[in-house]
Amino acid sequence: MKLVIFDMDGLLFDTEWPSFQALKEAVERRGFTFTIENYKQLIGLAHGKSMEVMQQMYGGKLPYEEIMIDYRKLFKEILAKDGVGIKRGAIKLLDALDQRGMKKCIASSSARETIASYLKLTGLCDRFDFYISGNEVKKGKPHPDIFLEACKIAGEPVESALVLEDSLNGLKAACAAEIRCILVPDLIEPTEEMKEKAYKIIEDLEKVIEVLE
Fold first, then answer.
1. Which residue of 54, 138, 161, 182 has the smallest Cβ count within 10 Å?
2. Nearest Cα to Cα of residue 135 among 120, 122, 116
3. What SS3 state is found at 4?
């Protein structure tokens, strides 16, 4: 194992719940109901796929771009107030990977500027070799493109890589890339499909160290 590929939202940073809160308010301002179950269907998806799924939810009646403008504003306000939380065990895992001399990167469906912002806010800018966003590949998760590109940039074959994810869409992308994936669930309870496809399912990032050993 030479490369560990981290997802970001819900895996490395505790951003899924504030994201849900912001999107719920933005959608309900337009007179639609939005639940946590609706939100779970969007976790891990690239922007274009999220739009497609949300339009399917509401029969094509949703003013998606208007909602996204509100959502981004509301989400920034929440993060400005509460900050960006680092998930439990993340720092200990990064330290352990450094000790082993392993390469580390982030492969996230979020925009590149969002990744950079979170890393700056949490002081983790120098903890990763590189990062790649959903905007930089042809097809986002659940397609394998982003993980295959991460391996290409790192100069490592998929057999030497490990993906860390919290969502089914990210897990599907890892499986499609034929890369082992450890699942660390956040808002989503593990389903039978997740149990079948994941290399391991663990409760926090520190447990990854035990798996590596």
1. 138
2. 116
3. strand
